[in-house]
Amino acid sequence: MARFSLARLRQRLRRYQERRRSRLQLLALDDRLLKDIGISRAQARQANRKTF
């Protein structure tokens, strides 16, 4: 049976926060910068809707 690990929980929360922050930063880019990295506004929105 798996044991509860506070360290593992902290690690998962940190990863969640990092993903959330990077997806929000992606949404903040203007269309020119999104085009520069090869994604569309719709793709950026779709990435933001992903579950963690």
List its salient traits.
3 helices, 52 residues
Q: How would you describe the shape?
A: elongated
For the biggest sheet, the summary is: none
Q: How much β-strand is present in the residues?
A: under 5%
Structural class: mainly alpha
Pick out the low-confidence regions: none
Number of strands: 0
Mean pLDDT: 91
Overall number of domains: 1
Report the radius of gyration as a whole number of Å.
15 Å
Q: Into which percent range does the helicity of residues fall? A: over 70%
Q: Termini distance?
A: 24 Å
Write the H/E string, N to C.
HHH
Please count the helical segments. Answer: 3
Entry summary:
This protein has one domain (6-49). The chain has three helices and no strands.
SSE topology:
Elements: H1 6-28, H2 31-37, H3 41-49
Helix pairs in contact: 1-3
Overview of this structure, please?
Helix 1 (6-28) packs antiparallel against helix 3. The protein has one domain. It has 52 residues and is an all-alpha fold. 75% of the residues lie in helices and 0% in strands.
